[in-house]
Amino acid sequence: MTKKKILFLSVSVALMLSLLGGAVFGQSVQKNSLYRYLSIFTEVFGLVRGNYVEDVPTDRLIDGAFNGVTDAVDEFSYYVPPSQMARYKSYVESDDPGLGLIVTKRFGYAYVITTVDGSPAQKIGVERGDFIEKIDGQPTQKLSVWQVRSMLRSERPVDLTVVRGGMTKRDEFHVKPAVFEPALVSKQFGDVAYIKIPYFSKGTAARFSDALARVRQSGSRKLIVDLRGNAGGSVDEAIHAADQLLSNGVITSIEGRRATAARFDADHATGYDGEVEVLTDMSTASGAEIFAGAIHGNNRGKTVGVTTYGRSIIQKFVPLPSGGGVYMTIAHYTTPDLKPIKDQGLKPDVVVDLTSQALRDPGTSSTTPKEDLILNRALSLYGEPQATKKAA
């Protein structure tokens, strides 16, 4: 390796560790510790370069090392090497749900956090918890999470190979892009009003306000807000929607070592002052967690269901002198009592056991109706009879 490459490697790794060291090791990296880690890295790098069974390109080893650093922080941060920056510039992290799949990487594969209601992906049967093994024949193990998301925002049809938990059979899906708008769903179960918010897109808070106005007109004093499967979209819309149910208190705040602290308080106006229950599941994430946390944290109502995903964070792309960059978590949103909404997610007030539905009979279709245990539990808390079965 040339002296120039060694210098580039040392400077790049030092910068990466300076940026991410605090998050990885839980404290500031002191000079002596930094030099020690760089020494270990250089030693391991040299051993692999000199002794691995096949010759490995230097760039591949460096990229792998940087990817390892971001993987150690959280599943939502990633490294973009200089060779991929041109392609990355055409991709921008956004609230666009694309084909309706909100994904991350788990165990090396693309993992479906949720499918957005009404999306092309949901309509053909892709489900929360699915592992996407291949996209258009390309193994997702070899793709960064941003590359996976970019391919799933395609304007042309996409072929997916999917593996499901507890199943060994691969399912093949052909997803055609289509324009769709995640719509609020309003229903009435006896004396209980029900509003489902599938995604916080632009205008969701206003539509939620209109739905609450109809609830008031109906005279209902019992409300269920369903946030199951809501894992993305605009955090601002989620904050404004939660404010519709609050007349005081903290909705959320922003905390982070490198982020500007901020706090969002409820105003005195409220769109509904009756009883409230909020439904959550393991694919409730991001703004939906802020909404649920605000209702629970201000003692405004009960949360019912399953612990949420744990992904209410703020991220930023940091360019590197090498020409690459890092997309990393720089702050997190909190509950009203200033606890971060991440890692383990939010545990509901009333936990519903879904063990009986965890494994699917191999001969059962994913669209076979099954009992909605979470909704039924919420209705029972209001003294209402159970709802009918729903599609999986």
Low-confidence stretches are 1-11, 19-29
Strand content: 15-25%
Query: What's the N-to-C terminus distance?
Result: 56 Å
The CATH class name of the largest domain reads Alpha Beta
The biggest beta sheet reads: 6 strands, antiparallel
Named CATH topology of the largest domain: 2-enoyl-CoA Hydratase, Chain A, domain 1
Portion in helices: 25-40%
Q: Can you tell me the overall shape?
A: globular
Backbone CA Rg: 23 Å
How many distinct domains? 3
DSSP summary: helix tally: 10
Structural class: alpha+beta
Order of helix and strand elements from N to C terminus = HHHEHEEHEEHEEEEHEHEEEHEEEEH
CATH second-level architecture of the largest domain: Alpha-Beta Complex
Can you count the beta strands? 17
CATH homologous superfamily of the largest domain?
2-enoyl-CoA Hydratase, Chain A, domain 1
Characterise this structure.
With 392 residues, this protein is an alpha+beta fold. The protein has three domains: 3-73; 98-175, Pdz3 Domain (Roll), CATH 2.30.42; 185-312 and 332-381, 2-enoyl-CoA Hydratase, Chain A, domain 1 (Alpha-Beta Complex). The chain is 31% helix and 22% strand. The protein contains ten helices and 17 strands. The chain has helices spanning 3-25, 31-51, 58-73, 85-89, 120-124, 145-151, 204-218, 235-243, 287-297, 373-381; strands at residues 78-80, 101-106, 109-115, 131-135, 138-139, 158-163, 170-175, 185-189, 192-196, 222-226, 250-255, 262-265, 275-280, 302-305, 313-319, 325-333, 350-351. Strands 2, 3, 4, 5, 6 and 7 form a six-stranded antiparallel β-sheet that branches. A six-stranded mixed β-sheet has the order 8-9-10-13-14-17, with helices on both faces. Strands 1, 11, 12, 15 and 16 form a five-stranded antiparallel β-sheet that branches. Helix 7 links the parallel strand 9 and strand 10 (222-226). Helix 1 packs parallel to helix 3 (58-73) and helix 8 (235-243) runs parallel beside helix 9. The longest helix has 23 residues, at 3-25. The protein is globular, with a radius of gyration of 23 Å. 38% of the residues are buried.
